[in-house]
Design goal:
By secondary structure, the protein is an alpha+beta fold. The protein has helices at residues 102-131, 144-158, and strands at 22-35, 50-63, 66-79, 82-97, 167-169. The model is unreliable at 10-17 and 166-170 (pLDDT under 50). Residues 1-21 are annotated as: Disordered.
Length: 170
């Protein structure tokens, strides 16, 4: 039985895959804030907070096929009527997208990119809460595909489903 050799040789250069191209140019913290408006008194209260999470994404085109995606995460912890802390993180990335259909581009910018940014934002929130000497806060994973699908459904109902998302609200 003869063995097949499928490795490319110098005479047969490997072909680059055809299709859409995507690359991360940079991931960075755009803005960050942590407030404890009721300290030090808040530390004397029993820790049973009501935690509210707000997530927002914003996309802007920097130049042809180069986009900034900003994931804004706001966490508010309340003890009754008192704010224990307010944590705001804007995690951003610059992404290069090759030529691709508008629908694919919208999904990449509205779901895939925020999904890449979320672990960085989650870590920043966790670190800020820890530095505020509050008990650990671990944010659960977010289903950006579902958020994006809801956004696109809303856009379709309004008659603009093919637009690249400029803002996604959860």
């Amino acid at each position: 039985m003869a063995e097949e050799n499928n490795t490319p040789t110098a005479a047969e250069p490997e072909q680059a895959p055809q299709g859409a191209q995507f690359s991360v140019q940079r991931i960075y913290t755009r803005d960050i804030s942590f407030e404890t408006p009721n300290s030090p008194g808040i530390f004397q209260k029993e820790w049973k907070p009501e935690v509210k999470l707000d997530i927002d994404t914003r996309t802007s085109e920097i130049e042809a096929n180069l986009y900034e995606v900003v994931l804004s995460v706001t966490v508010t912890a309340m003890l009754g009527e008192d704010t224990a802390f307010l944590c705001e993180v804007q995690q951003a990335g610059i992404f290069a997208l090759g030529e691709m259909p508008d629908q694919n581009k919208a999904h990449t910018l509205g779901s895939f990119c925020p999904n890449m940014l979320f672990p960085y934002a989650r870590e920043a929130v966790s670190n800020l809460v820890n530095r505020g000497t509050f008990p650990p806060l671990n944010l659960a994973p977010v289903n950006f595909d579902a958020i994006f699908a809801a956004y696109m459904q809303k856009r379709a109902e309004q008659g603009g489903a093919t637009d690249t998302p400029q803002q996604l609200d959860s």
